[in-house]
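Weekly puzzle thread! Below is a chain. First person to post its structure in token form gets bragging rights.
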Amino acid sequence: MNVGVHHRVTNDELRGMFSAMGFSEVKTFRASGNVAFTAEPRPLAKMTLAIEDGLAQALGYAVPTFLRAAEEMREIAAMRPFAPEIVEASKGKLQVSILASEPTAQVRAEVLALSDERDRLAFGGRELYWLPSGGTLETALDMAAIERTLGQTTRRTKGTIEQMAAKHFGG
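Winning reply:
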């Protein structure tokens, strides 16, 4: 989820909100809106809307939420979108943008057309992988164009995804 730069929520508060929404085994990972929980089986789209509604009621503002099942988190953690030698040669950290929905072939093509050897892009199912050649703030990649094309996303380093999957999802 994206809590935004102007809205701060503690992990304790976040766990409390998810528990109040009826989720169990609620755990947070780092102070960046990463939440793991157990829920009764239901479609992810319905659960996402329920979480967004619950957070909006509790916080008084909209909180875009990007939900993935445990298996999906393990798959994202295991994904190797670029050859190991390319990743090792980069001074940047591999990034994963979590998308709200799977993009169409046309949207994928438009986004991939923005990449080059300095800023490599690859898609998973509902994820965009980005390998910058340096720091994310040093990139020439048109991030605004990517967001306009894909819609709102939330981004984590691949290392964060791997650590979260290992800690909370047995990945």
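Puzzle host: Confirmed. Bonus trivia for everyone else. The chain has a mean pLDDT of 93.
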